[in-house]
Amino acid sequence: MADTFTIHDLKRKLQERQHKMTPQRQIVLQVFLDNPGEHLSAEDVRDLLKESHSEIGLATIYRSLELLSELSILEKIEFGDGCARYEVTNVQPNTHHHHHIICENCGKVIEFEDDLLESLEDAIEKKFDFKINNHQVKFFGICKECQERAQN
Amino acid sequence: MADTFTIHDLKRKLQERQHKMTPQRQIVLQVFLDNPGEHLSAEDVRDLLKESHSEIGLATIYRSLELLSELSILEKIEFGDGCARYEVTNVQPNTHHHHHIICENCGKVIEFEDDLLESLEDAIEKKFDFKINNHQVKFFGICKECQERAQN
DNA sequence: TTTCAGTTGTAAGATATTCTCAACTGTGAT
DNA sequence: ATCACAGTTGAGAATATCTTACAACTGAAA
Fold first, then answer.
1. Residues of chain B positioned with their CB less than 8 A from the CB of A134
2. What whole-number percentage of chain A has pLDDT above 70?
3. What digits encode the pLDDT tens for the residues B80-111?
4. Which positions ≥6 away from A71 have C-beta within 8 Å?
5. What is the sign, positive or negative, of the torsion defined by CA atoms of A121, A122, A127, A131?
6. What ranges do the domains of chain B cover?
7. What is the C-alpha separation between A112 and B23, in angstroms, rounded?
8. With a 7 Å cutoff on the CB, does A48 touch strand C?
9. Under a CB-based contact definition with an 8 Å cutoff, are residues A96 and A90 in contact?
10. Which residues pair with B27 in a beta bridge?
């Protein structure tokens, strides 16, 4: 299995739901594949497309991001900077989750991997009769650089 | 020590920062004390105040919520429903963290307690030179009622 | 009581996101 | 190939949440 989603995965998932494979949807996914590790907002996507002269309507970008999230290709994350951001989901199920450490001062985001909460998911499913699909962990604090800057 | 914040705690924390104790700030905190366990948005607070005929300006509500967060009296949480929500912070330091289980279908939020991540905070502080202040964990899934509704 | 930094309310502004709708286009059926 | 149509797009209007500007007001220290 490839280590990330492909355009073909997109087509397959769209067909399962009577959705059409459009150039716009391909383009939006491609932006994420071309910018691994980034947490892109709708405006980020629009700006990147403007640079590469393949602009599409902003409303369509929003619609595509939502659709790609529903298809579990992208994951929506809020870092508290006033806009929703997205990143490509790990393809393999049961793979490492990666979580985010956010600097409350400068907004920098660092990622780290951990599986600590997998076992908790089972416990929660039993206790609350919830079908858990995903979880997000965020740590908030002050990054090294901002700490140093504050000392001067 | 009381098991939640009081108006007196607010006064003390405000004084530490050269901020004034105003009726509006008391009122906003009181709304949270009167509605334990709720995750209130700015508009929720405004509506509750309208009911009790003690309205204050919406901008002031926003400002108070932000200030109360800075004073660590309230905690800001985003559940993905398009607005920031707040809840009263646990008074005792090093107390149990409580996390949220969110139904992706109906938006219901259930809480549960856990300390699993305390040890991780130390590891992260060392590894990334981050000063961690807080963390949030969210589980996303489908609640019991929505699962049952989907089967019919 | 005086003084003034800090605060409030109103209205306007900024920003992110969703909606409306007419024109367009994949896709399955013929 | 072509047709038919459900689904999609783009543009702009609309909405929602939140922030800012500013003149009037007010706790609280002296």
1. 139-141
2. 94
3. 889 999 999 976 655 667 889 999 888 899 99
4. A10, A13, A14, A17
5. positive
6. 1-91, 96-152
7. 44
8. no
9. yes
10. none
The residues, any chain, with a CB within 8 Å of residue A135's CB and separated by 6 or more, are A97, A117, A121, B137, B138, B139, B140
3-state secondary structure A59-108: HHHHHHHHHHHHCCCEEEEECCCCCEEEEECCCCCCCCEEEEEEECCCCC
CATH number for the region A96-152 comes to 3.30.1490.190
Which pLDDT score, from 0 to 100, does residue B98 have?
83
DSSP state of B89: P
For residues B122-128, give the mean pLDDT: 91
Q: Whole-model pTM?
A: 0.90
The fold for domain B1-91 equals Arc Repressor Mutant, subunit A (1.10.10)
Q: What span, in angstroms and rounded, lies between the C-alpha atoms of A105 and A143?
A: 8
Mean pLDDT for B34-46 is 96
DSSP H or E run through B52: none
Distance between CA atoms of residues A146 and A121, nearest Å: 35
- Judge whether residue B16 contacts strand C, using its CB and a 7 Å cut-off: no
Name the residue with the least CA to C1' distance from nucleotide C8.
B60
